[in-house]
UniProtKB/TrEMBL annotation:
<dbReference type="InterPro" id="IPR039420">
    <property type="entry name" value="WalR-like"/>
</dbReference>
<protein>
    <recommendedName>
        <fullName>Stage 0 sporulation protein A homolog</fullName>
    </recommendedName>
</protein>
<feature type="modified residue" description="4-aspartylphosphate">
    <location>
        <position position="54"/>
    </location>
</feature>
<keyword id="KW-0902">Two-component regulatory system</keyword>
<keyword id="KW-0597">Phosphoprotein</keyword>
<keyword id="KW-0963">Cytoplasm</keyword>
<dbReference type="GO" id="GO:0032993">
    <property type="term" value="C:protein-DNA complex"/>
</dbReference>
<dbReference type="GO" id="GO:0000987">
    <property type="term" value="F:cis-regulatory region sequence-specific DNA binding"/>
</dbReference>
<keyword id="KW-0238">DNA-binding</keyword>
<feature type="DNA-binding region" description="OmpR/PhoB-type">
    <location>
        <begin position="132"/>
        <end position="231"/>
    </location>
</feature>
<keyword id="KW-0805">Transcription regulation</keyword>
<feature type="domain" description="OmpR/PhoB-type">
    <location>
        <begin position="132"/>
        <end position="231"/>
    </location>
</feature>
<dbReference type="Pfam" id="PF00486">
    <property type="entry name" value="Trans_reg_C"/>
</dbReference>
<comment type="function">
    <text>May play the central regulatory role in sporulation. It may be an element of the effector pathway responsible for the activation of sporulation genes in response to nutritional stress. Spo0A may act in concert with spo0H (a sigma factor) to control the expression of some genes that are critical to the sporulation process.</text>
</comment>
<dbReference type="InterPro" id="IPR036388">
    <property type="entry name" value="WH-like_DNA-bd_sf"/>
</dbReference>
<feature type="domain" description="Response regulatory">
    <location>
        <begin position="5"/>
        <end position="118"/>
    </location>
</feature>
<dbReference type="InterPro" id="IPR011006">
    <property type="entry name" value="CheY-like_superfamily"/>
</dbReference>
Amino acid sequence: MNKPQILIVEDDKAVRNLIATTLETREYAYRTAENGAAALLEAVSHQPDVIILDLGLPDMDGVEIIKKVREWSNLPIIVVSARSEESDKIGALDAGADDYLTKPFSPEELLARLRVAIRRSHYQQAAPGEAASVYKNGNLVIDYAAGCASMAGKEIHLTPIEYRLLCLLARNTGRVLTHNYILREVWGSALESDIPSLRVFMVTLRKKIEPSPSSPRYLQTHVGVGYRMLRVEGQAEE
């Protein structure tokens, strides 16, 4: 199987070379762009499988690139940025980024995030008919047509909001969803005052699907930002 094609968008030569060298260690094919205009041209012309994107580019903000790419593609976008404020992370993720890694970063962590993004992309592309009706992740199964979910063959009794939350996270497995995004999709609005309610529902949902809620395998919390459904390999005894 051919290695995924990665587009590195980074104006800092040292960081760009570090990312390129990291990809070379795993024999990934890659192309580079040093500014936003070149990045958009590369994305349209060469259709990469994943974009690794810096936000602080000389000609435009990386968030604008995310928005433009999202107008025509759902390819994974991993932000690698020196901006560490929660507002920056939320802004990029709300615009459509799949993940956010803060500089300085570990090459191994970047590779791990890249593997997650690639798995998510492959899962979405594989068996679209089956994926549209039944979701399987470890021992978790969601039957969208029947409107029910089960864990290790036992039905999970969910409230309507818990079920909508679970489906939203499942359909975006591997992607960090911000509080605002989840609130808009599930509640229809994104009010700051609704975030405590979201946290309560996530606690109850985690208790129902996690074998050990204190050591979650499925639902990952990104403090101050949002939540992510993790891909669980194979099946385990619950």
